[in-house]
Fold this sequence. Notes:
The protein is mostly helical. It has 19 helices and no strands. The longest helix has 33 residues, at 188-220. InterPro entries: MFS_2, MFS_trans_sf. Keywords: Membrane, Transmembrane, Transmembrane helix.
Amino acid sequence: xxxxxxxxxxxxxxxxxxxxxxxxxxxxxxxxxxxxxxxxxxxxxxxxxxxxxxxxxxxxxxxxxxxxxxxxxxxxxxxxxxxxxxxxxxxxxxxxxxxxxxxxxxxxxxxxxxxxxxxxxxxxxxxxxxxxxxxxxxxxxxxxxxxxxxxxxxxxxxxxxxxxxxxxxxxxxxxxxxxxxxxxxxxxxxxxxxxxxxxxxxxxxxxxxxxxxxxxxxxxxxxxxxxxxxxxxxxxxxxxxxxxxxxxxxxxxxxxxxxxxxxxxxxxxxxxxxxxxxxxxxxxxxxxxxxxxxxxxxxxxxxxxxxxxxxxxxxxxxxxxxxxxxxxxxxxxxxxxxxxxxxxxxxxxxxxxxxxxxxxxxxxxxxxxxxxxxxxxxxxxxxxxxxxxxxxxxxxxxxxxxxxxxxxxxxxxxxxxxxxxxxxxxxxxxxxxxxxxxxxxxxxxxxxxxxxxxxxxxxxxxxxxxxxxxxxxxxxxxxxxxxxxxxxxxxxxxxxxxxxxxxxxxxxxxxxxxxxxxxxxxxxxxxxxxxxxxxxxxxxxxxxxxxxxxxxxxxxxx
Length: 558
């Protein structure tokens, strides 16, 4: 194998500083240039940290992302009510406006990931760090559009514009959030703790929003627009402060050839142009399917997000029309689920750090299957129980489902953090933002399709809107859709995990090989064992890895 494989085409050469004798005194301009170079090197080193074990403060600060998401929870919970009840906007206009905004966010999410990965090509990125710089740009933009969402008595066209702006900016924040577990550390235990911290932060934020809103509504009332506006402003200020605190506490990979992703966009002459960059955004979005580990992860991701969304859409209908319960009869499950949910997430974080994400995913999948099997039996035999027994039984089972669901979600997010490590061995670049953007887009698209698809099926089986009861066919359809969708897709997800070979042992081999090549090692010196692991995870020949492909740059011929 030729030694040239140790250097990929279009790659940025390793940063090597060699002292050379100075034959002539430096003039003022040269001294200033050297000083600026030294300052840049210092700022890069201080703005980004190598991925060793993380401090407790860095882990806590990452959880601030989850806490700050109360801003979006407020939007999802009260925005539609606020517009229709107090701004006198028709419900059809509001739903169209929100749907358009979310679809706009889905389209722009890959662009945020693409930009975030390439921030080291800018002065501010090299000064602050690529993720930190992007977050400090996004936080004030998000605050601006968030405040504009809640301004009263604006024309409809203004609300449409503000919603597009908000839903275009917010995915940039969530993209940074998704990217950070892989960005901040290579250590599997730290990654597991980051995932847990983010989930706990989100749970505490959602619970705190519910409690604080209830208290403030009791004080300020609910009959006028201003209580909603004031509450939204509280979350706007608190959420923005949390994002800024997180920005200055997160750790990043240092500037080096692997994080200089923009270098891979250039052609053989070292040039690029705006049109090629536009093409690159969408090419990078689709070309990742050539990586075997990502394809395997993608199917796992889709199975769990589909069944969780379908179950969420049908939950109220199942309670009311299948079990014939008043929704208030099981409202206590919200508080109980929160208490148990924190314990569940903590447990799965510990378990994942011990046995890996694939095994904990399977455990969560089997628990989910068993729970919904029990709910199916309850639905089929509901005539044997009174309303109180059904309410208690359903509350217990849904709380138990929280154990399986949190296991699946925790493991999915943990597995996602390792996909960029495979991408690095394929492309020679660290593209956490790319995969975070893809995840954000797919989440939005699947959620929309799940809602639409579920509605179409309900129409086909005779579901009647604004009715106190449903035909027998619709009731049976609700029962089987609600129970069998999670059961079938959870088992399918479990089966798919056996196709994914990114376990802890293979990950260590992968990281070690990427480190060796990053430090200038030759691809000709790869061991047979490492070659086998890399080719299995990448789904391509070893010689085609480390930038010898066109996965980042469509014009690159290897």
